[in-house]
Amino acid sequence: MDTSLTETEQKLPEHQAVYRKIRDMILFGEVLPGQPVTILGLKDRVESGITPVREAIRRLTAEGALQTLGNRRICVPEITAARIDEIYFARFAIEPKMAQMATENITDKDVRELKALDEKVNEAITAGQIEHYLESNFRFHFRLYDAAQTPILRKIATSLWLQVGPSLRLVSGRYGTSNLPDKHTEAIEALAARNPEAVARAIDDDIRQGLDLMRQALGV
Measuring CA to CA, which residue among 56, 25, 4 is closest to residue 165? Predict the structure, then answer.
């Protein structure tokens, strides 16, 4: 994964661009659970100054995506059975509801864009490209959730994904992309039919399949 700032990120205020870059490193599993990193190491990887890196670390620590270990070392928290249960309890409560609310605002253009994003997910699965799968899967879900127009819930959902993303990378690496389930097709069909209950069920099933696979892979 290229960790230098993209053209879009370079147009953002530096602290926001650096936050997004480090956030994506965590979301898409470039930094694995328990793997220590340093402020200077992150500074070099994102090609930025120390101050915006520190600010990004502060935000990500508050969101539960990072923890500080002392001596300027930082790591992604190790996953545990209790942690998984809490994260997924919250995901089940929030994400299907966001998907249901999104259906009330969805347009044909939105549905086409979601289909295109799902095609990228399928391409990554076929090619065995784990990082591309993780990124495309995230983009699909949050393109849908954005249609709900619920910024507070979106912020919470992003925090939950940040806390589970590195472990999803481990699961994907262990089982390969061909075994990664999703219910995107069912969700898209329900969106096209403007059936909010069916969309919520599809997202609930999608989350549940991911949880089952994670528990099996991590033995928790």
Answer: 25
Task: Determine the Cα–Cα distance for residues 26 and 20; give it in Å rounded to an integer.
Answer: 10
SS3 76: strand
Mean pLDDT of 197-217: 91
DSSP state of 71: T
Q: What is the pLDDT of residues 55-85, one digit of tens each?
A: 999 999 999 899 988 777 789 888 888 989 9
User: How many helices (H) and strands (E) in the chain?
Assistant: 10, 3
Size of the chain in residues: 220
> CB of 57 within 8 A of CB of 75?
no
User: What average pLDDT does the structure give for the chain?
Assistant: 88
**3-state SS assignment for residue 107:** coil
Cβ atoms of 90 and 46 within 8 Å: the answer is no
User: Which pTM was predicted?
Assistant: 0.87
Helices (H), the chain: 7-10, 14-27, 39-46, 50-62, 81-103, 108-127, 130-146, 151-175, 184-192, 196-218
Q: Are 32 and 65 in contact (CB under 8 A)?
A: no
